[in-house]
Amino acid sequence: MSPPRKVRLQKADKQLILQYPDGEFILPAEYLRVYSPSAEVRGHGAGEGTLVCGKMHVGIDKVAAAGRYALQIFFDDGHDSGIYTWDYLRELCDQQDAKWQDYLARLEAEGKGRDPDESAVKFIG
């Protein structure tokens, strides 16, 4: 997969904009963070991944080239170990809606939330 023509970090809006010949994609920091390709998030093998929650307010401090094949994203929560290959970034662009809905469903199934200030306690009334 070819790299995007242009990569723009919009820190204030907490998003990364990738421009390809066939369109422009806006990837929110939270989405990129919860789908980090790091071993911390994905695990070392099938089924070992971790569901990341409470990242609603996460931002991106900076992005850097990782050779000629990827980007390294430095998040303001200290996470910086994910190397986002051009192929993986394009996958995140092309499957954004489905991946986001899957993430929300997994959060709900595990009783977790996007907001780090949200109570994990559910009141039954």
UniProtKB/TrEMBL annotation:
Keyword Nucleotide-binding: no
Keyword Acetylation attributed: no
Coiled-coil region: none
Gene3D superfamilies with a match to the protein in the record: 3.30.2020.30
Domain Gamma-butyrobetaine hydroxylase-like N-terminal, residue spans: 8-90
One Pfam family in the UniProt entry: GBBH-like_N
Domain of life: Bacteria
UniProtKB keywords: Iron, Metal-binding
Protein name (database record): Gamma-butyrobetaine hydroxylase-like domain-containing protein
Organism, scientific name: Microbulbifer celer
